[in-house]
Write a structure and sequence with these properties.
The complex is a heterodimer of chains A (444) and B (451).
Chain A (H helix, E strand, L loop, with lengths): L4 E7 L2 E7 L5 E8 L13 H9 L8 H10 L3 E6 L4 E8 L3 H13 L5 H17 L4 H13 L13 H4 L4 H11 L5 E7 L3 H12 L25 E6 L7 E6 L9 H12 L5 H9 L6 E4 L10 E5 L6 H16 L5 H18 L3 H14 L9 H7 L2 H11 L6 E6 L1 H11 L4 E6 L7
Helix pairs in contact in A: 1-7, 3-8, 9-12, 9-15, 11-16, 12-14
Chain B lengths: L2 H19 L3 E8 L5 E7 L4 E6 L5 E8 L13 H8 L11 H8 L5 E4 L4 E8 L4 H14 L5 H20 L2 H13 L13 H5 L3 H11 L5 E7 L3 H12 L22 E5 L7 E7 L6 H14 L5 H9 L3 E8 L7 E8 L5 H14 L6 H17 L4 H15 L4 H4 L9 H11 L5 E6 L5
Parallel strand pairs in B: 3-7, 8-12
Antiparallel strand pairs in B: 1-2, 2-3, 4-6, 4-7, 5-6, 9-11, 9-12, 10-11
Amino acid sequence: MNAPKVSRATLRGAVVLTVEEHSLPVVRFVIALRRGSAVDPEGQSGALRAMMELMLRGTDSKSRERFNAELEELGSSFNAVPGSEAAYFRGVALKRNLGATVNLIAEALSAPAFDAEEHAALIDEMVQALASDRDDDDTVAELFLRRAFYKGHPLQRSPLGEAPQVAKLDMEALRRLHANRVVASDIIVAFAGDITPDESLQAANVIVEKLPAGTAPSPLGASLPALPEPKGLRIVVADKPDRAQVQLRVANPGLAGVHPDTLALWLGIVAFGGTFTSPLTQEVRDVRGWSYVAHADFSRRQVLPSPIVLRSVPPKENAVDCLALEIELMDKLAQGQLPQAVLERSRSYMLGRYPFEVATAADMLNPVLRCELLGEPATEIFATPSRIEALSDAQVRAALIKHLQPANLTVAMVSTAADIRDELARKLPAATIEVVDFRTELGG
Amino acid sequence: MSQTDDEKAMERVAADAARAAGHSVKLTGFARYNAQLAASRFQLDNGLVIVLLPDERAPVFAYQTWYRVGSKDENPDRTGLAHLFEHLMFKGTTKHPVGELDRELESRGSQTNAATWVDWTYYTCALAVRPGNLATVVDFESDRMRGLALTQDVFASELDVVKNERRMSVDDSVMGRISETLFATSFTRHAYRWPTIGHLEHLETMQLEHARRFYDTYYAPNNATVVVVGALDPVEAITTLAKAYGAIPASKLPERRRSPEPEQTEAREARLKLPAVSAHVAMGYRAPGQSDPMHAALEIASEALLTGDNARLYKRLVTDEELATEVDGFLSPFAEPGIYEVLLTLRPGADAQRAIDIVQEELSRVGDGLTDGEWRKAQNGLTLSALDSLKDAEGLAEQLGHHETNSRAFEKTFEAIRRWENVQRGDVAQAAKTFFDPRRRTVVVNQPEST
């Protein structure tokens, strides 16, 4: 076997990661900004996204058209992917075109044009696209869940931005953001694929050498207030006409990646709703046929505590019963009620699945990056099997009992409110129910 | 090692496996991409095709069973059966009761799944190379090829799941409704005109008996290809498969007569008024099937039209004329002639007809030829995406299975990497002139009342 090899180096304050595997002449790359939209200035939601997008619209020496023509002729891609915790420029290139691609990336990062016309066009496009996003119910559900779950906290802002604030983003704000955030000490450069660590360092040097050194940023958590404590069952209904179904999300506060209980909680959640045979999926989908989608998600390598989210899409006739059932299942889980066979299968599943996490350079790129963002060595990903094996059943159940709060769940539903509002109030009398228009803040 | 030596080695694999399994195994094809990746095709007496690609890059393997049956094989009055059946295949056999397949394979680390489209249905799982894993998946997959035991309860519950899948992906989805309308309007006779997920009224009346008949007809070794990609010993893998599948009798497959779609000679249009924030436009041009050399020419044209910020359609519609916020498109990889789709999300208040006219203008302009830059972009971009599809065992198996099922040519997986080498620039211009003729066009516009 020629398993991918991982290496780490530093270069002018930047971290350079390499996942080396030479089976195909392809190289993936990521330039990660260590802090994401969570630390965007107050009232400037979407600023990081706008800055990243504008960096791809021409440089000091190349118009947007010329820059894109050169990149596209290489067959390479280079995209901005803003996130709450961190933000990423991601791309892929043929090995033979990597050098030319890296030269273009370096130029975009160090000398973006920040052209006034492009700025105006971009802001307009972002506002319009944010409106169009409301045509997708899944996107609407995630948006309103985020707002309800993180209410009053900077994390409630979508990394994509909120239209009224995006509309006011001026060029100077984006320039300042670029000067502060795109600095060597605040980035991670990662390559994966047909590249050696030496080649990776050379390429990273091209990217980093023209960037300001910057100063090491404070940890993300230290820059943010504490997360809000959830109180009671809170339901927000994003009212949308003519819905046959309800996009349903149920969120419970989760844990950060470095918390000692995270792995145990994660394994418990995988057992509860992470596979086709898990109780949540069985009860909602197989036994009742209520939803095509029925699963629970919890990311275990987040810098900040991320919620446990149950996702399902029942028809409007079954939506309230489905929500009640999911709350009931969460309640049982919070009492540690998880069949032994289910927990063991989940453990066995994750151990059997593990080889796929490290099978190819492409598979390893994200976990390696997450380790770096968490401040853990990249080799931590190789420790996953032994850590899962070392977890006792009691630890998993204890984590579920300690961290699940079935009385304090946050629920988002995208639905025609008139179809479910009365039934919600009748069957879940303890809930606080808020109905909002699905176009809220768009002026619709 | 030369190709001849490769093939001789694989002939020996077939002979050793046949001896060990007690069933005839013949090598019927071989193709090599590079020193590491080479695939072989074997066939058993009952017609089962096996495509094997030993891949030592990681200690894992992908196992996929492709059936040459999709929604195009359905009765037009009973659409959605192929896809519903895909769900039912997880519902137990006489040997393995309902739930056992998922429980057993999940406990070994596999995410079992499946997909159905117009031309095919396939079942996939991926496992670590560990003792018993290959034998286990072969046992389950060979068993459910003929041994499914369906009950009314299981059928009814899964039918509800499928109806809910349809509500989610079509009824409550603007783009889902538009896509369904586009195909229903583009095709008047061919079976591509109905949606793979089926019409709700057909799902409402679907009976267990319909599913049983469908299974008996199409789920048979002579209608299937098993694709195995991974770090497996070839003799052991082929022997295991031959032992498990070799005794399954072939079926008499029905002759599949499909109504050919008549030439489209006039533009068509459909208008919707679904609730939405933005207006959407979908345009479909009747396009060749994937085996037609002109398909590759259209793929190259599509790179120039749709890939990247400088792509002709994005630049005109989003950047220059500010009519759309999003431009997307897709050339259907169908066995028979499909469509080339262009999808637009319009800005509020944008003139939909103006956007349609621009798309037509730009598509027609490809008939004048591509620039040198666009040609390089297509060459590099298509090479990269084809290589990227080979990056892991699951992706590789999917490509091999798709090509073997649709055109009985698994080797196209590797040929795709250099497919642009067989296309001349004049071919692209000719393809654009032929296929982007406005008379071959169907347009669907969703103009919500709120915009």
